[in-house]
Specification:
The complex is a heterodimer of chains A (about 400) and B (about 190). Chain A folds into three domains: about 30 residues, no CATH class; about 220 residues, outer membrane lipoprotein receptor (LolB), chain A; about 90 residues, no CATH class. In chain A, about 35% of the residues lie in helices and about 25% in strands. Chain A has eleven helices and 13 strands. Chain A has a seven-stranded mixed sheet with strand order 2-3-4-5-6-7-13. Chain A has a six-stranded antiparallel sheet with strand order 1-8-9-10-11-12. The longest helix of chain A is centred in the last third of the chain and has 21 residues. The relative contact order of chain A is 0.14. Chain B has one domain. The N terminus of chain B is likely disordered. The chains are: A alpha+beta (about 400), B mainly alpha (about 190).
């Protein structure tokens, strides 16, 4: 058997066929020529940097939420339609107030003490000229005795699409339920990277403004104020955010009421034709304020069916360095090491056991599950199943070589 | 200037790890994605070179492909096929979008000029090689786009028949048969040109 036969066993049979072998040999020579080309070192470094920057904005995958990437991509782009209701923004002229000023004011919006706000948005998602989904986002925000928002609930109802979902946020803790997949997500780290499905505070103007203000401080060029406009009869401050949630091709335009600083809507589109994403449009359609005591029961619980499955939280890799006395570089270990995580850990922490290391990796997720159960977001069975799945993941990680 | 900490770590070249391991690691910690980039960078780049006019365009697309792959890594399911097929599927779609939106008239070329050897010290060999390949290029240009793509995936990107089958949504047997038919067509024309 020739080298060519060994290389292309699917194309060349053992029966000699000189002409066919010549064709394959010529094609193989093409391969040789092609493999002489290389990415320029400068561009290679730039791509690595871009990937690394993007990787830092990603959270570990949550496998049962396949909409994660797709929706997160969509999320950066909201917009709407609603001719009469939302309408299209019209410029009103004067020089813009700075983005930081607008966002600071919007972030500082307080509720009347012991009151709750109820806002509804019309939402449309399009892919070019085609409407992918249309529906509503229903948001409740409740303040404490001083009017500071303490908890919120966001229900996105876009038919049977993957976009539909419900989020409850209590302080820094976020819970999500996806009705299509009947899965619950308990995500302690969600506040830092609010990117699954859609950000849990996408329709919570004050919370959203806080996040955008942080982004504006870090990267002023990404967040720009535009001249005030009129949107559905209201004067709005306009904030344009490029590359929100780590997506350089996307441009999201937020409209904050110039008087109340409530979020009146947003549009999101792809600004790069080579990287198209769906466009979103959202417009405020109703707003109301009620006494906290009058908020319907279970407004701030997930209300997921008991048959819904809890997605196991990710093992806390941050605990590795502490547990293994600081000598384990997790990233390099996962990327390049040949030994298991446990074996690597035992170099610097000789007494470490499999159970001990799994417990350390599990602690954060287990606490989140316990809190979720205690606050009625999930049932005891769901918490137990989630914990079992978490331990399975952590054990696999610890023993993987 | 780039700082080391701001770039993805280079993978360890001493012991190759299975794609599945690297994917799992990247799903657990997206910053580990550098190992997959390193493993597939060149093959995806070569493939993209056949779909673009310039190396710069191919590099642009290369970045987009891997950013898309990183974004979508959570959706990748090993049971649906090898990572290589999934990744090249992204590359294929990205290149198609590029052509549809930017360069709708650019034709595929199995051996783009930018890939041809430029070793001035071996001019004779270079000319001979180009002449040899000119026949192949001519025949290649007569194939329809679908067939050209199969050859590119097999010979330039180095995918196996099984990987190509998964990528294009056909059975491995059907893909092998299709490749065999394409080669047979080329073979017949080789006879004609002999």
């Amino acid at each position: 058997m020739t080298m060519l036969n060994e290389q292309y066993p699917d194309l060349l049979s053992d029966r000699p066929d000189p002409t066919l072998a010549r064709v394959v040999a010529d094609l193989d020579r093409v391969r040789e020529i092609a493999t002489a080309a290389t990415v320029s070192p400068r561009r290679d470094a730039a791509i690595r940097q871009a990937l690394y920057a993007r990787a830092l904005t990603r959270e570990p995958s949550r496998r049962v939420f396949p909409l994660h990437g797709r929706l997160a991509a969509l999320a950066a782009a909201l917009v709407i339609v609603l001719g009469g209701l939302g309408g299209y923004p019209r410029s009103t002229g004067p020089a813009p107030v700075s983005a930081q000023t607008v966002l600071s004011r919007a972030a500082a919006v307080h509720l009347v003490p012991n009151q709750a706000a109820h806002l509804t948005y019309w939402v449309t998602v399009t892919d070019g000229a085609r409407i992918i989904a249309m529906g509503t986002a229903d948001t409740w925000i409740q303040g404490g005795a001083r009017g500071i928002p303490m908890k919120s609930a966001q229900t996105l109802s876009l038919g049977t699409t993957r976009l539909s979902g419900r989020y409850v946020r209590i302080g820094a803790q976020v819970y999500a339920y996806n009705s299509l997949h009947r899965t619950i997500l308990v995500s302690p780290e969600a506040r830092a990277i609010p990117s699954w499905v859609v950000p849990p505070n996408l329709f919570n103007g004050a919370s959203l403004a806080q996040d955008l203000r942080v982004l504006a401080e870090r990267s002023p060029r990404q967040v720009q104020a535009q001249p005030r406009q009129t949107l559905a009869g209201k004067i709005v401050d306009v904030i344009i955010v490029d590359g929100w949630m780590g997506r350089p091709a996307q441009r999201t335009t937020f409209y904050f009421d110039a008087q109340t600083y409530a979020l009146r809507g947003f549009d999101a589109v792809s600004a790069d034709p080579s990287y198209p994403t769906a466009s979103w449009k959202a417009r405020l359609s109703s707003e109301d304020t009620v006494a906290a005591a009058a908020v319907p029961a279970r407004t701030f619980t997930l209300n997921a069916p008991v048959t819904a499955r809890v997605v196991a939280p990710a093992p806390n890799l941050g605990a590795l360095a502490r547990t293994c006395h600081g000598a384990v570089n997790v990233r390099m270990l996962l990327a390049t090491e040949t030994r298991s995580v446990l074996a690597a850990c035992q170099i610097t922490a000789p007494g470490m056991t499999e159970v001990g290391l799994v417990d350390a990796l599990d602690a954060q997720g287990a606490a989140a599950l316990a809190t979720a159960e205690a606050t009625g977001q999930i049932t005891g069975t769901q918490a137990a199943n989630g914990l079992a799945a978490l331990r399975t993941r952590a054990t696999a990680l610890v023993l993987a070589g | 200037m780039l700082r080391v900490a701001e770039t993805l770590p280079l993978p360890d070249g001493d012991r190759p790890r299975a794609d599945a391991d690297l994917v799992s690691a990247s799903q657990a910690d997206p910053t580990a994605f550098g190992a997959l980039y390193e493993r597939y960078r060149d093959r995806v780049f070569w493939y993209l070179l056949t779909r673009t006019d310039t190396a710069v365009d191919a590099e642009d697309l290369l970045q987009i492909v891997f950013l898309k792959a990183l974004d979508a890594l959570a959706q990748y399911r090993p049971e649906k096929g090898p990572f290589s097929a999934w990744l090249f599927g992204i590359a294929r779609n990205t290149a198609a979008t590029f052509h549809a939106r930017r360069l709708p008239t650019v034709a595929w070329d199995l051996v783009p000029e930018i890939l041809l050897p430029v070793d001035e010290h071996d001019l004779e060999a270079r000319l001979l090689r180009q002449e040899d390949l000119s026949r192949l290029r001519l025949l290649f240009g007569r194939l329809d786009a679908r067939k050209r793509e199969l050859l590119v995936l097999r010979f330039v990107a180095g995918l196996t028949s099984a990987e190509i089958a998964c990528m294009v949504g056909k059975s491995e047997a059907a893909t092998k048969k299709q490749l065999a038919r394409i080669l047979h067509t080329l073979k017949e024309h080789y006879h004609d040109h002999a």
